[in-house]
Amino acid sequence: MFKKLPFILMTLSFVLVLAACGSNNNAGTEGSASNGSGTATEGAAELSGNILAVGSTALQPLVEQAGQKFMAVDEYKNVTVQVQGGGSGTGLTQVSDGQATIGNSDVFAEEKLEDEAKAKELVDHQVAVVAIAPVSNKDAGVEDLTKQQLIDIFSGKITNWKDVGGADQAIVIVNRPGSSGTRATFEKFALGTKVEDIQGSIQEDSSGTVKKLVSETPGAIGYLALSYLDDSLTVLKYEGVEASVENVEAGTYPVWAYQHMYTKGEPDAATKAFLDYMLSDEIQLTDVKELGYIPVSGMKVKRDATGAVTQ
């Protein structure tokens, strides 16, 4: 009996070791399964953060509406989305300096930021296309303007609507500031040149304010994204071409730009979820179209940072 005792003890120890290993393996397996499914469920439920999107007022209505819908989704309930205007230049500067999570812009970053290195740090997320249309007060008596007529009006050479076939009424220019991507788009693709602010013109940061002023000020002219247009204004044709979704998609109406949402480097989890949501069918096929924007996927032409258009 005493001779067999060491063998019995060794066997018992071996059995206990095997039992312990089996228990650890089962615990590890169960833990992995729990963590695996828990990560997907808990990770989504626990996704949190504060997103501040600043910049383009042309893009602002879409981002605001999408942001409200995004925060209403249960798995994103711990993410806060705040949207502010200020113009594309402001948005690009603030995201570059780390003051904003997203910089909304009507123009490519390299067109607006003077520091090339800072522009290269930003990651471009194109979420829609916007068309910009010249608009006037309804009493101006004009429905169509040529490129040259627009240049002459915004440079101060033409000061009365009667000189372009309208009412005998002084023209009041409602312009956007230099930081505005909407202004940059209008000057680049409607005028083909930058113009100086002339004496007596009105300058406003917000597209909403421009709309209000043009609709209420006799003789006023300005320009707005399609998302701001309604019957309170006269939407002017450009060289005889209407600023419609179909004409923009086909490339026959030239005054349009991509709507960019820039991040400094790759976005964090919460911001990426919001940007993915912006590109989801829920937003692209409903909100984008309903608000007067154009899905990027609908464009039959493309445009690069130089303004060159390709099929």
Automatic annotation (TrEMBL):
> Topology versus the membrane, per the UniProt entry?
Lipid-anchor
Any one Pfam family match given in the protein's UniProt record, by short name: PBP_like_2
- Source domain of life is Bacteria
Q: Which residues form the signal peptide?
A: 1-19
Does the record carry Oxidoreductase as a key word?
Answer: no
- Give UniProt keywords alphabetically: Cell membrane, Lipoprotein, Membrane, Palmitate, Phosphate transport, Signal, Transport
**Primary location group:** membrane
Q: Where in the cell is it found?
A: Cell membrane
- Tell me the ranges covered by the PBP domain, including all copies: 41-282
Family assignment?
Belongs to the PstS family.
Relate the protein's function as given in its record: Part of the ABC transporter complex PstSACB involved in phosphate import. Involved in the system for phosphate transport across the cytoplasmic membrane.
Subunit composition?
A: The complex is composed of two ATP-binding proteins (PstB), two transmembrane proteins (PstC and PstA) and a solute-binding protein (PstS).
The name under which this protein is listed is Phosphate-binding protein
Say which species the protein is native to.
Paenibacillus tundrae
Q: What is the lineage of its organism?
A: Bacteria, Bacillati, Bacillota, Bacilli, Bacillales
